[in-house]
Please model this.
Amino acid sequence: MQNLTNTAQTLGLSTARRHLFLCADQTEPKCCAKQSGIDSWNYLKRRVTELGLASGPSPHLLRTKANCLRACTQGPIAVVYPDGTWYHSCTPEIIERILQEHILQGIPVKEYTFAQNPNFTP
Ligand code: FES
Model:
């Protein structure tokens, strides 16, 4: 249990402000070409580190690669919690906007939002 507690602390599981799930490297790529999702995922990982969002105090961001988020069109698809904001067309360019505008400033990128769940509040 101690190791898991340390891991949770290292990952910031109790302190992260948001969690971004990105559909990438799918078993059955449907929302975008497999390489497109992988490119976006690699970009997301690199920029999260470069922007200092991977650890430390807020706005700490958790990131998870999802095999499929079930929207399956106009991908790569992403969703940001706790906001419940769903994004389409998440190319590296749009990932950068999500990081700069939504994650860092708290302002969702409306042009690429296709669903917003009001049951989740930022
Ligand atoms: S394959 Fe990306 S959302 Fe289903």
User: Anything to note?
Assistant: Residues 34-50 form the longest helix (17 residues).
